[in-house]
Amino acid sequence: MTKLFETHAGLLADAVKAIEERGFWSAFSEVPRSYGETLPEEGKAAFEALLGKPFPLDQSEDDGRAGGEVSPFGPALGITYPRTGIDRLIERASASAAGWAQASVEARCGVALEIIARLNRASFLIAHAVEQTTGQAFAMAFQAGGPHAHDRALEAVAYAYREMTDIPQGDVAWEKPAGRKVIRLTKEFHLVPRGIGLVIACATFPTWNSYPALFADLVTGNPVIVKPHPAVILPLAITVKIAREVLTEAGFDADVIQLAVDAPEAPVAQTLAVHPAVALVDFTGSSEFGRWLRENVRGKPVFTEETGINTIVIDSTDDFAAMCQNIAFSLSLYSGQMCTTPQDIFVPRGGIETNEGHKSLDEVASGIAAAVDALLADPARAAAVCGAIQNPATLERIDKASSLGRIIRPSAPVAGQEGARTATPLILAVDATDEAAYPKEQFGPISFVVSCENVTDAIDRATRAARTKGGITAALYSRDSDLIDKAAGLYAQAGAPLSVNLTGGIYVNQSAAFSDFHVTGANPAGNACLTDTAYVAQRFRVVCVRRPAAA
Amino acid sequence: MTKLFETHAGLLADAVKAIEERGFWSAFSEVPRSYGETLPEEGKAAFEALLGKPFPLDQSEDDGRAGGEVSPFGPALGITYPRTGIDRLIERASASAAGWAQASVEARCGVALEIIARLNRASFLIAHAVEQTTGQAFAMAFQAGGPHAHDRALEAVAYAYREMTDIPQGDVAWEKPAGRKVIRLTKEFHLVPRGIGLVIACATFPTWNSYPALFADLVTGNPVIVKPHPAVILPLAITVKIAREVLTEAGFDADVIQLAVDAPEAPVAQTLAVHPAVALVDFTGSSEFGRWLRENVRGKPVFTEETGINTIVIDSTDDFAAMCQNIAFSLSLYSGQMCTTPQDIFVPRGGIETNEGHKSLDEVASGIAAAVDALLADPARAAAVCGAIQNPATLERIDKASSLGRIIRPSAPVAGQEGARTATPLILAVDATDEAAYPKEQFGPISFVVSCENVTDAIDRATRAARTKGGITAALYSRDSDLIDKAAGLYAQAGAPLSVNLTGGIYVNQSAAFSDFHVTGANPAGNACLTDTAYVAQRFRVVCVRRPAAA
Q1: Which residue of B has its CA nearest to A472?
Q2: Class of domain B2-307+529-546
Q3: Collapsed DSSP state (helix, strand, coil) of residue A263
Q4: What is the ipTM of this complex?
Q5: Which biological process terms from the Gene Ontology are attached to this UniProt entry (chains A, B) (predicted)?
Q6: What's the fold here for domain B311-500?
Q7: CB nearest B522 (choices: A183, A527, A541)
């Protein structure tokens, strides 16, 4: 067991250093070709071998089997999963708890790090699974579903490891002078897990968004029940299978991690979340369910990443073309289905100053629209950027949204993707005073160019949206450094991480492990941050045992 | 402002080192005579000068004045306090927030440390205030109300300071290799306070139990509203007055800290706790109100220290007399009104093995009773140990409890304390199967010697009490080191800090700052720990601002 820790100790030490420095650092390459020549083919073959069959997961199917995943690109996956009943899940998790709790911090971290390493070697398999369930294009499915998710997992392990090892391990001598005598006690500090951790995953980033909680729970000693979205099971089924294999090989009970598969007509998340044996709940998904959890789950920590309204404010720019290209890519990537995708683009109605001279509001709007057109002109690139639409409801939302403002750019299917559910960005123009639509979340490739009084009004509306509706990202374009500095404070107060003047190969949608704190917990877009100290420190408790020091 | 930080930086560095080592460390002497010759007299005079007058606190009295404190030792204090209305409190706190949030971590810590230093110099004044409101004997009022509380305050500052300064201050360079290019961003991390912190204090340890929250809120940038128990206002009125003076001198708005005085017939805690502008709630007190807060306060962190059942298990001892003396002191100290006082003493019905040979259960019970009698035989010492009873309801509870078992030792007033509300320990004997009384909290000097099947049954009952009803302390006496090691794990799982074989000048009631984690948060006695990382890390959030690095 300590052998696994030794194998990965160097990586963990680097990760701990990275969370302290918060510059760029990544443990796992995001470049597919760096994984060698055989892994891509093996991953593809492994994925295809899973199709149309019962998924080989060694869990009880006392509640039968379930699974009706249909690829947003067309075909049904035809995979079924064991459906383990709630009582059975709790019973098995509880039975596994003592052995896992008693394992040393190093043993648990060693297991977690080995799981992450094996997940990383399975990145191509998982990429295909993510692609064919979430609708992400393959390149994103690989990066976000694979190495970036592994970085986020490692980051959570690093935080938890640092936090646990901050508590003295082994005996501590407590020697209090008392007059001419000294009172001597020996103290030992027991790290006590909370209990069963429930991790409720989302349908768009099943691994990236759930790994931090999953691994934070695991290494702090809590058995984990992973509840995937019923439309996106496979990536987490593979994850749980690999984790169970590592646990077993390391001599632990495989039930330290279990998959809770349910069907849309018989959901289990609520029942599990309020179950007395469940001590920790993590959730990524809609604000509606997030609110239900926050209101109904009592007496245990609940960590949520919900939704909100991400904004862009355009005051001025030194590179109008690059700005439009950058925004166009942010709107188009995964057809706007990222929790970080901008929705509202606030522009002063008098227009903006740029390197190309003054641009009217209409010119700004059409500039962005034209950049989207240019980006998506080539069907192959359009498919690689947009991917497919995960949920049919999103297509309906786009349809309905078309009447919510003046259409700057209509949405359309991606050319050449017949059979797939696709949609390019819909861009609408509205006046800031028309608050019927833009101040609400419109999930999907739907954005608004909002005409504002001036930049002060724009920033005011953007930060108010974050404060009141939540915001996971925000962007600002300005040549005025005083304005930027002032705005930085306002966005910080609104709990919205701010990206300023992004052009080139970096986008507001992107959140880098070990550097960006994803979700601040400071506005309604979520009450937790991936990952900070507060995210891990509540997952275990410390109990002191003290006795007189041996004479 | 940084001047205050510089003044106290060495102390803070020592405190940060202490929380990492968790051996014995104390910043403030618990020995009254080490404070010199003049401070005791000055403190007494300052206290007497406050009696019978309006307390000089520069807060709005838009809701009139309140204050009906009556000393448990007899006299009414005759002090009134400004009663600031809820709207006014919130308005003032909100108005003070921006300036305080913008202050640097060092500036805020400097102010907090200066407040603590001045509180320490006011230890004698505060000791009289604590004595004459809580009923603690003077020696305890001095130590627990003064230097020990200041240690706990400093500990919270150290945790918060370490946590905040763990986030890089100043610009961080993020440089991501992207093919042959490098993407360069500059990131800055803003620490953002949560909002107004409400600190609801208890009637027994008004300073020791509230200072950690009060100072954790303050240094993380949150304005604080301190809500004292209406029977025990003075110690916190003095605290808030001193804090407001330091804030003002340092150039901040005094309303960064305010006192919310209420009257029993018009309580304000609930209204304040659910107020949308209040972002953090800390509470020490009854489980009943703690439950109300946990169930009704949504969407904001709530930190509670509630109550529970503290236990002793006696298996065997190498020093029967010293054990009985130690337990007797723990039962008698402040007449059992500490949140750490043992209530249930589990003893095998077959008796125990000791250095004096076998002792029957009755001999153990009468040994403890005799030790209480011996401890309290001298009236002066009895008064110095027991103090007075804070709440008249406790006396009634003792009366009623007399019928709950076989009386081993009756409670009685402390001799020579006429006019004061006093009571020595009531000790009852019951069988473990008679679960009418001992498995419930009986606050005050009421304890049960519970006859158990054997030591396994005793430990099982003790740990179950902690798991189900909560437990802040637990004690075990045994000569069997294997049994102790096994028990340590069981108590840890029950979230109950365990003290083993205490004799001499250290008692299970005592919880040392910088070493003992007070309340684990792992059983119903409270959801928070004074003080650990989780206690401070939720009181602020981090928001990143990133922009292209200057070329």
Answers
A1: B543
A2: alpha beta
A3: strand
A4: 0.96
A5: L-proline catabolic process to L-glutamate
A6: Aldehyde Dehydrogenase; Chain A, domain 2 (3.40.309)
A7: A541
